[in-house]
């Protein structure tokens, strides 16, 4: 086994930005690239946000690779801006735009994120960790193109879905799955082993406004910007879900689990996604594979809150001190 390599697949909104900062401050694996997808924001905004945030955090060397701009079943690019992440996916905070260009597909209709992921899977195999924190479109397309290469990836940990909790966009569906149910269904039913870090655990890990004072005290441009951006997100959460102490740390938890699976306890099962009716987008046990002894999804149901909180806080302070 060699050194671990990490690829994040982001629909860069606010918790994705925290996940990216944590990944950059994590010694367990080298972040070799960020692939992008529509979701919290349209693809172009996700790309612009990834480039700007990497610049802000002092990591302009990390490639940003353009991925899917729409769900598998959609005929038009996705154009929605999700309220919870503000007008630009960054709580309305305008970061200096990066002058870098993303990696784009050579031909029209291509998907550079899929090319990048498959190349990395072939090159690093077991040592590659892939963490999608938006709709699963890029992963589903990679499976369609070369399932054998995808099977070589050492660990796939996705943020999305819910098994024991209601959804966050409809009573049944969590946002990342709701944005492309067909892609998520293809991933869960592909037989490729994945760990699902869904609302069952991500709603347990919360960040309160008080932590932002520690960021501001660092006095760096990155810390100031993150305090404003995340402050917007916490306000939104507290207004919408007053039973929470702050915002949910969905995507940062997925990254932390990908780097240290012992942070969660999981339930092994075979999942599918409801594609029809009022529960479209719900992640649920696949009745056709209920008796199959071979389970392909580990669903995180319990999290070591204290250990995650310590890791998250330390790594955010480290990432935000850098510049
Ligand atoms: O449901 C939470 C997820 O949806 C997070 O990944 C958030 O960034 C949004 O994409
Ligand atoms: Ca996300």
Helices and strands, with pairings:
Elements: E1 5-10, H1 14-24, E2 30-36, H2 43-56, E3 64-65, H3 112-124, E4 128-132, H4 137-151, E5 155-159, H5 175-178, H6 181-189, E6 194-197, H7 199-202, E7 206-207, H8 209-216, H9 221-240, E8 247-248, H10 250-259, E9 264-269, E10 271-273, E11 283-285, E12 297-303, H11 305-321
Parallel strand pairs: 1-2, 1-4, 2-3, 4-5, 5-6, 6-12
Antiparallel strand pairs: 7-8, 9-12, 10-11
Helix pairs in contact: 1-10, 1-11, 3-4, 4-6, 8-9, 9-11
Bound molecules: alpha-D-ribofuranose and calcium ion (CA).
List key phrases describing it.
323 residues; binds calcium ion; binds alpha-D-ribofuranose; 16% strand; globular; two-stranded antiparallel sheet; eight-stranded mixed β-sheet; alpha/beta; Inosine-uridine Nucleoside N-ribohydrolase, Chain A
Helical/strand content category: alpha/beta
In spatial order, strands of the major sheet run: 3-2-1-4-5-6-12-9
Named once each, the bound ligands are: alpha-D-ribofuranose, calcium ion
**Straight-line distance between termini:** 33 Å
CATH class: Alpha Beta
Q: Uncertain runs with pLDDT below 50, 5 residues or more?
A: none
What's the overall geometry? globular
- Biggest pleated-sheet summary: 8 strands, mixed
Q: Can you give the helix content as a percent range?
A: 25-40%
Instruction: State the fourth-level CATH superfamily.
Output: Ribonucleoside hydrolase-like
Summed up, the helix count is 11
Percent strand: 15-25%
> What does the average pLDDT come to?
97
């Amino acid at each position: 086994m060699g050194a671990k390599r990490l690829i994040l697949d982001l629909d860069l909104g606010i918790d994705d930005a925290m996940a990216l900062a944590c990944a950059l401050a994590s010694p367990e694996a080298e972040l070799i690239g960020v692939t992008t997808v529509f979701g919290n924001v349209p693809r172009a905004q996700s790309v612009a946000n990834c480039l700007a945030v990497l610049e802000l955090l002092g990591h302009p060397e990390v490639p940003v690779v353009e991925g899917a701009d729409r769900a598998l079943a959609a005929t038009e690019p996705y154009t929605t801006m999700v309220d919870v992440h503000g007008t630009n996916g960054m709580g309305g905070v305008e970061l200096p735009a990066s002058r870098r260009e993303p990696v784009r597909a050579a031909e029209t209709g291509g998907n550079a994120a899929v090319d990048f992921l498959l190349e990395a899977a072939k090159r690093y195999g077991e040592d590659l960790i892939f963490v999608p924190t938006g709709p699963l479109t890029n992963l589903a397309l990679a499976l369609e193109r070369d399932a054998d290469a995808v099977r070589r990836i050492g660990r796939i940990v996705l943020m999305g879905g819910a098994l024991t909790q209601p959804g966050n966009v409809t009573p049944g569906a969590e946002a990342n799955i709701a944005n492309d149910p067909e892609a998520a269904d293809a991933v869960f039913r592909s037989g490729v082993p994945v760990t699902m870090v869904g609302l069952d655990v991500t709603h347990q890990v919360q960040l309160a406004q008080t932590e932002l004072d520690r960021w501001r005290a660092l006095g760096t441009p990155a810390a100031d910007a993150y305090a404003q951006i995340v402050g917007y997100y916490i306000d939104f959460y507290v207004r919408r879900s007053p039973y929470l102490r702050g915002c949910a740390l969905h995507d940062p938890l997925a990254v932390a689990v990908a780097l240290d699976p012992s942070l969660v306890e999981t339930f092994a099962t075979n999942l599918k996604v409801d594609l029809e009716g009022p529960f479209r987008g719900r992640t649920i046990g696949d009745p056709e594979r209920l008796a199959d002894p071979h389970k392909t999804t580990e669903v995180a149901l319990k999290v070591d809150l204290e250990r995650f909180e310590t890791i998250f806080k330390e790594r955010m302070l480290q990432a935000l001190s850098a510049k």
